[in-house]
UniProtKB/TrEMBL annotation, chain A:
Pfam family membership, one: HATPase_c_2
An MF annotation (GO) of this entry: protein serine/threonine kinase activity
KW Kinase (keyword) present: yes
Keyword field contains tRNA processing: no
Keywords, alphabetical: ATP-binding, Kinase, Nucleotide-binding, Serine/threonine-protein kinase, Transferase
Domain Histidine kinase/HSP90-like ATPase: 21-145
CDD domains the record matches: HATPase_RsbW-like
Entry protein name: ATP-binding protein
Organism: Oscillatoriales cyanobacterium SpSt-418
Length: 150, 115
């Protein structure tokens, strides 16, 4: 884990980075990393759960939809943390893929309506305060912000 | 190979108790689906699924639970889920908790099957 701590005046966010591949078994490493980091930052169990869920959902979306080949790719996760505001940036080199453009899922009213997929982006939207996508050069950049992360 | 989900199984006369620990996510979900489908096929069809020690469930895991629940209903069995606050919270975010039979203890889940 690379860490670039905040300066003495705490005007710059602490920065943490994690790099994983587009293999689903790397989700386990991602989970371990965010749990270790949150423990180090003394984040509550509720806060850990919240960021772990949005990271897993966002990375799973990238793995499932951003690649059209069978090659190994790199996904870079960057966390910026200042004054209890957490900014999560996910950067991948896949084809243009904006998960925020996916239609809002209709939550099921009956068991028959309940489906196996499509709930991930709803969970992300539910647990973040701001979300933003942009295409930068050959990369997808998804930015998620959680206010009052503690 | 990384293993993110582990489990045990106890077969009783009228039900089987499956206890899981770890992560029920996009990585472990295919194995979960395959194994649980076989267990239901093997019987008994009444399942007590203990997720109280699960650290984390994501939308992939929830999707598998929906499929499992539908299969068990089709097979005329019963699925009782022992949950914890994290799992329940995720279910509530996508309105799935209303369809599942949720319990806070294994004893409560077993009682429901025997009722």
């Amino acid at each position: 884990m690379d860490r670039f701590p905040a300066n003495a005046h705490n005007t710059q966010p602490a920065r943490y980075e994690f790099v994983l591949t587009n293999r689903v078994d790397d989700l386990t490493r991602l989970s371990e990393w965010i749990n270790d980091l949150a423990n180090q930052l003394q984040i509550s169990a509720k806060g850990v759960f919240r960021v772990e869920l949005i990271l897993e959902e966002a990375v799973t979306n990238i793995i499932n939809y951003a690649y059209v080949d069978n090659e190994e790719h790199t996904i870079r996760v960057t966390l910026l943390y200042l004054d209890q505001t957490l900014t999560v940036e996910l950067r991948d080199d896949g084809i243009p893929f904006d998960p925020l453009q996916r239609p809002e899922v209709q939550l099921p009213k009956t068991l028959e309506e309940a489906t196996e997929g499509g709930l991930g982006i709803h969970l992300i939207r539910s647990y973040v305060d701001e979300c933003h996508y942009q295409r930068e050069a050959d990369s997808n950049v998804l930015t998620l912000k959680i206010l009052n992360w503690q | 190979m990384t293993v993110s989900l582990r489990g045990t199984r106890e077969v009783k006369e009228s039900y089987q108790l499956v206890r899981l620990t770890g992560l029920l996510d996009a990585f472990s979900e295919p194995t979960f689906k395959k194994v649980l489908t076989k267990l239901v096929d093997d019987g008994p069809k009444n399942i007590v699924l203990d997720l109280s020690k699960i650290d984390f469930v994501d939308s992939s895991g929830l999707g598998s639970l929906v499929l499992l629940f539908k299969k068990i209903q089709t097979d005329q069995g019963s699925l009782q889920i022992v949950t914890n606050s994290r799992v329940t919270q995720t279910m509530k975010m996508v309105h799935l908790e209303q369809f599942f039979s949720l319990h806070t203890t294994v004893e409560s889940a077993v009682e429901k099957i025997k009722a």
